[in-house]
Amino acid sequence: MKTPKQQRKQKITQATAPKQRPAKPAPSAVEKPATKVVAQSTSDSGERIQKMLARGGIASRREIERWIEEGRIKVNGEVVTQGVKLKVGDYLQINDRVVHWEKFAEQPTRVLLYHKATGEVVTRNDPENRPVIFKNLPKLETARWIAVGRLDINTSGLLLVTNNGELANRLMHPSTEVEREYAVRILGHVSDATLETLKTGVELEDGKAKFDEIHFAGGEGANKWYNVIVSEGRNRLVRRLWESQTLLTVSRLIRVRYGPIVLPEGLRTSRFYELTDKELDLLFEYVGMEKEKHVAVKPDAKGQQGRRR
C-alpha cells in the first residue's frame, strides 16, 4: 500500500470524486478465575465487538482487541474472548460501565466536508453559547457524527465529519502521517532564513515540529500569504510554528486540504458537501480499508449525496 505522502496528488474533490482513554480497569486484586469467559462465537449472525465499537468511535480495532485480551469487556456479564459477536439484546460493558452499542449498528458510511467559519467551535455543547458546528449537520437516526481532528475557534476551512469511527481513527492516527494543507496570512517580514528554519524544525513546548512544505502564495505590504503542509495534528501546530519566529503573527488561517480531500470551491461557510459513493470508495482505498457495498438509500434518509448544503 502506498503511504499517504505518495498518494498526496490523488486528491478527492466533488468533481471526481483521541485515542479515547478508557476508564481505569478494576483493581488487579479481583480474582479472574471467578469470572466466566464467553467462548468464541461461530455464528454468522451479529457483528464482532471490535468492529462495532471502532465504527462508533470508542477506540481503534487494535485497542479494543487489547481490552478484550485484558478481560475488560463483558457481554451479558461474562468476559469475552476474541471473535465474539454482538447480537440484538446483548448487554455490553467496558470496565463494568454499560455501553449502549445498538446506536453503532452497521449503517452506510457518510462523510461530510464541512466549511468551518471563524468563530465556530468543534464541540457538541458550548457553555459560552458560541456557534457549534454539529448544529449545522443533518441528524442521524443512529450513531453520531465524529469530527476528524479539530480546528480552533480562530481557524476556518475544511473539517471532515463522519459516522464511521474506524475511518475517523485511520485519518487521525499519527502513524498514517496524513497531510494537512493550510493557507496562512502572515503579518511581518518573512526572510529566507526563517523559511529554512521552519522547514528544518523548531523546538516547541511539546517537542520538535516543522513544515513539510512552504510555498509563497502572494500578497503585498506587511501581509503575505503562504501555503504550508504538515503531517501531524498537534493542537494549533501551524499557528505555533509561525509565531515561534520573532515578530511574526498569523492574521488568518484556513485549512484547504486534509489528505486527499480538498475544500470544495464555492462551498460557503457553515455549509457542507457530502461525498458520493465513488468518492467514498477512493477515501477507503486511501486509508487501506475495505470498500463498502453500496445500497440504495432514500434521499430523505441519507440526504442528497454530492450536493452542497
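Above is the first protein from milestone M3; the second protein from the same milestone is given next.
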Amino acid sequence: MYQNLLYSQMTHEQLIENNPESDDITNPPHNIHVVRDSETILLSGQVIPPKDYIHLYDSSPYKITNGHLAVKIPCDESFQPQLNVLVGQAPNLQSISLLLIEELSKPSKLCIYHADLEETAQVSHATPDVKIGTITDIALQNPGIRAIELPPTSSITIGVNEIEPGAEEHEH
C-alpha cells in the first residue's frame, strides 16, 4: 500500500522520465494527432440509385490513421450486406471488409457490421494481401441494379481517433 501511495504522488514528468516507452507518449511518431471525432448519420429514407453512392465523410487534407465504423444497413437472408462501405482517398475508393455483429442483426432486414479504419484494413472481394491504403473519404455505395431506399433505423457511426498530415489532394 505504501508503494501505491508513493506512485500516486509521482508527477507526470516523473512518470514519463521513469517510463522507457515515454518517447511514444510525448512524441507520437510521424506527426500523428490524437483526435476524437465521432459522427452518427441517420440514413432512414435515403435512396441510393443503382451504381451510385452517398459521400459521408472527408478528412482531407489529413489522412485517418486510426478509426472505427459501425453501419446498420439492409442485408440478405445470409447476412450479406446489400450496400458497400467505400473507404480510401477520392477518387480511389474501395469496399472495406465488414465484420457482422450477428447478435444485433436480422437477416433479410437490417444487419450491423463494423470495421477498423486503418491503412492496413482489407479490401472486400479481393485477395488477402490487398489493403485499403490512405483513408480520407468514406461513402456508402449501392452496387446493385435497383435503387435502395434505406429503412428506419439505418445508420452509420464513424469514429476517427488519429489523423496525420500528408493526404495531398488529387486533381479531379
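Note on the second protein: Residues 1-26 have pLDDT under 50 and may be disordered.
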